């Protein structure tokens, strides 16, 4: 534990509706286990306050932050520098502060890469259906294309214009893949059936039994369903897929791996993965 307030360095998560965020619990557990004098808090702000918040963070003692829903894209214009990987996908989820300079990174891509790695042979070079069109979606698409050479990605989003915008932007940034959008629920069964990987990148199912896909959609055993939602650990979408024999991954793995990469950026040290996993699972049990 820090011996005095002066020796403490501060970090936190910037977003909206952060009541159930697990990042403070995860990082605090790791800081404590490694004896690091860091304190991790919550910075809940609306978009209009982002510029003033970031100004106030350019102070001694502030080490960095995570950025979450809904600021991952909007925050870019208020930072001083952007890591090329974050620039390439147009979303930032991690900020490093050094000498008054705020640099943006995207560690969600590393989180997705590591979460999908055990299933690489199932998905490499194949097609994916991605539900959502936000900051997390960009990280999922970037990893699918760059790490797993996926050949065709279809995006379905509640607001179809955002899906169209997203595929146009990803098509420019990562042109080795073909991109499509679908406009309505009626097109979902065919899109699901044509995909080796189905990913939910919306918050649907977070602390609820809702699913981003209709209950009558069916899956097959050669499909992988990845839900970025981590609370509950087994979402309704995962249960639907599992019942049909498909493989599933929940958001916990992505959460831990994106956290590990952010920790490395802030501290230059190795993350205590087991400590983080235990702390997050314990916290999820108390929430359920
Ligand atoms: P974001 O940039 O705000 O995007 C949210 C997306 O979800 C948008 O496409 C939005 O659709 C859609 N959406 C939101 N509410 C919806 C609803 N009720 N019905 C249908 N669609 C809805 O957010 P984000 O940062 O990508 O985060 C999305 C989710 O991923 C969050 O739950 C977050 O916790 C989770 N996440 C998890 C990890 C992890 O490590 N496991 C990492 C990143 C994100 P519209 O365009 O129509 O608004």
CATH class of the largest domain, named Alpha Beta
As a percent range, the share of strand residues is 15-25%
**Straight-line N-to-C gap:** 30 Å
Can you identify the CATH superfamily of the largest domain? NAD(P)-binding Rossmann-like Domain
Major beta sheet summary: 6 strands, mixed
Find the count of extended strands (DSSP E, 2+ residues). Answer: 12
Characterization of this structure:
With 288 residues, this protein is α/β, with parallel strands linked by helices. The protein folds into two domains: 5-106 and 253-287, Rossmann fold; 110-249, NAD(P)-binding Rossmann-like Domain (Rossmann fold, 3-Layer(aba) Sandwich), CATH 3.40.50. Helices cover 39% and strands 20% of the residues. It is built from eleven helices and twelve strands. The protein has a six-stranded mixed beta sheet with strand order 2-1-3-5-6-4. Strands 9-8-7-10-11-12 form a six-stranded parallel beta sheet, sandwiched between helices. Strand 7 (127-131), helix 6 (135-146) and strand 8 (152-156) form a beta-alpha-beta unit. The longest helix has 17 residues, at 251-267. The two termini are 30 Å apart. Bound molecules: NADP nicotinamide-adenine-dinucleotide phosphate (NAP).
């Amino acid at each position: 534990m820090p011996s005095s307030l002066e020796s403490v360095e501060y970090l936190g998560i910037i977003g909206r509706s952060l009541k159930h965020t697990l990042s403070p619990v995860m990082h605090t557990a790791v800081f404590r286990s490694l004896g690091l004098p860091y304190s991790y808090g919550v910075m809940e702000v609306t978009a209009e306050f982002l510029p003033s918040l970031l100004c106030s963070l350019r102070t001694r003692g502030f080490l960095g932050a995570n950025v979450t829903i809904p600021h991952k894209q909007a925050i870019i214009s208020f930072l001083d520098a952007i890591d090329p990987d974050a620039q390439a996908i147009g979303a930032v989820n991690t900020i490093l502060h050094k000498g008054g300079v705020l640099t943006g990174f995207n560690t969600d891509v590393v989180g997705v890469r590591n979460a999908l790695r055990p299933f690489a042979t199932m998905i490499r070079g194949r097609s994916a259906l991605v539900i959502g069109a936000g900051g997390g979606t960009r990280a999922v698409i970037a990893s699918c294309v760059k790490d797993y050479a996926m050949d065709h990605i279809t995006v379905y989003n509640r607001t179809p214009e955002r899906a169209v915008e997203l595929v146009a932007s990803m098509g420019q940034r990562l042109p080795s893949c073909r991109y499509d959008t679908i406009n309505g629920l009626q097109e979902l069964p065919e899109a699901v059936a044509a995909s080796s990987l189905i990913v939910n990148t919306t918050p649907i199912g977070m602390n609820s039994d809702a699913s981003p896909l209709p209950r009558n959609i069916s899956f097959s055993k050669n499909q992988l369903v990845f839900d970025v939602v981590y609370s509950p650990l087994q979402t309704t979408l995962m249960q639907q897929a599992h019942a049909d024999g498909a493989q599933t991954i929940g958001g916990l793995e992505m959460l831990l791996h994106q956290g590990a990469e952010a920790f490395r950026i802030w501290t230059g040290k190795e993350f205590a993965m087991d400590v983080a996993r235990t702390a997050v699972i314990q916290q999820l049990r108390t929430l359920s």
